[in-house]
Amino acid sequence: MPLLAKVPGGAVLGIDGYPVCVEVDVSAGLPSFEVVGLPDAAIREARERVRAALRNSGFEFPLRRITVNLAPAMIRKEGACFDLAIALGILAATGEISSSAVEDCVFAGELSLDGQVRGTSGVLSIALAARSAGFTMMMVASENAGEAALVDGLDVYGVNTLVEAVGHLCGSLRISKTPATRGFADASLQFEEDLDFADVLGQDQARRALEVAAAGGHNVLMVGPPGAGKTMLARRIPSVLPPLTWDEALEVTRVYSAAGLLPAGTSVVSTRPFRSPHHTISAPGLIGGGRVPRPGEISLAHRGVLFLDEIPEFAGHALEALRQPLEDGFVTVSRAGGMATFPARFMLVAAMNPCPCGRGGARSGVCTCTPTAVQKYLARLSGPLLDRIDLHIHVRKVDMNDLEQARGRETSAEIRERVVRARQTQQARFGGLPVRANAEMRPSELRAFCRMSREARTLLYAACARLGLSARAHARVLKVARTIADLEGSDLVQDQHISEAVSYRAFSLRG
Ligand SMILES: Nc1ncnc2c1ncn2[C@@H]1O[C@H](COP(=O)(O)OP(=O)(O)O)[C@@H](O)[C@H]1O
Ligand SMILES: [Mg+2]
Ligand SMILES: [Zn+2]
């Protein structure tokens, strides 16, 4: 008599989870084991793992005709997260466990040959999809249990072995529910203690510009000779950003979980990401993509900082591909393996030397570069990309022997207090709109929320005409001015706010 079992499972495409039904049919006939709905290589491996895991856990592997179907068939599936559901489906179809024990629970876990249940990537996304599909129970590898338990309204059971899973489903072993995780276990872990702006001597202008950038979520370009402290400054930006909210932490965790980059023993990402890919990175590595779409660095930097050091050295097409995500806050990549949308709302922080030799551009006197070489170097940054970087700042080398530079250095915590206050003003202003920081304002918000004094308006138009700024650059200057006014607690954008915002645009890269 043929027996059919249906076991709920789940998979991830991009960072979106979706439910998958694992149907297992065991019938009389020559012994065989077929899996439909997976790519070839993955099928072979899944069959081997499931067969060995069942045998090594003391279960009989049925010498009958076994057909496994992963529905829906249209969606391309990858990964090993179906192993547990397939093994349990075989046991249910042969009557080892009751079918009713497996039909209300979503299973996600890889099996090792000896019957251990291993963690898989994307469990948070699968858990979210399970809850949306109306499930209230989920069984995963112990190491993924904390991650699944981030989802409200889902009872999560973590297991170490297939034997434990079967014991729990048959009622012979009681596994307790994983406690729900709601909030950060230790808020002090939200910042890297050893990176503090108090370490930076002098650099008052750069510190001010980075505070403005952090307050409004603006992009920054730092130009200066090697050793000026550009990298040092950039690495400290997360320390002055507001702590991640719980919802932001979940967004970031989904990306890291789907990419398989959640550190072992971690169920939620609690610090703002800081990513600094090397300039040799490929465009898919930066933007996202691949045969089966995976998030790129811009998505791993979601809600945090993407630091592109030596930005002119990056491949031109990789930089050009940044333009759309910089506007939209997300990226869509499509490949044979499917199409996926990844979040990519990050602060771009770029650094570069003033010229190829690094010694300082035409005016420094010690630069050995020819004007053509300098021109070529700078031309690698296209106008449209530069337009999207709100603040351009010069970082000069600090004289370490100058005692003046050591005075009154503020800590990151002090700067962060002002940034948080400015962000709270923005949140109150934007209310229910899909905009969280000034940098994200669209034309309608610009019109509604950037009321200028008459002097400010006159100054803005004059400056744009003088600097030959594009309409996009003009809008960005206004957003930066809005942030400067917010830091000052001013509802009206005044002329001093405009003039500071313009100063971050005023220097020419060509000279
Ligand atoms: N303003 C500064 N205060 C303290 N240390 C500095 C400062 N500027 C540079 N340094 C020191 O010089 C090192 C090199 O700086 P770095 O950030 O790598 O420069 P860049 O990225 O501009 O080449 C830093 O690690 C730091 O030790
Ligand atoms: Mg550097
Ligand atoms: Zn030079």
Features:
511 residues; alpha/beta; Ribosomal Protein S5, domain 2; Rossmann fold; five-stranded parallel beta sheet; four-stranded mixed beta sheet; 20 helices; 17% strand; elongated; binds adenosine-5'-diphosphate; binds magnesium ion; binds zinc ion
Molecular structure report:
The chain is an alpha/beta fold and 511 residues long. The protein has helices at 40-56, 83-93, 99-102, 123-132, 142-148, 162-170, 204-216, 230-235, 246-258, 283-287, 297-300, 316-320, 323-328, 371-379, 383-387, 412-430, 443-449, 454-467, 471-488, 495-503; strands at residues 3-13, 16-27, 32-36, 65-71, 105-108, 110-111, 117-118, 137-141, 155-159, 220-223, 274-275, 288-289, 294-295, 305-308, 330-335, 338-343, 347-352, 391-394. The strands form six sheets. Strands 11-14-17-10-18 form a five-stranded parallel β-sheet. A four-stranded mixed β-sheet has the order 1-2-4-3. The model has no long low-confidence stretch (mean pLDDT 89). Adenosine-5'-diphosphate binds at residues 200-203, 224, 226-232, 398. Magnesium ion binds at residues 230-231, 309.
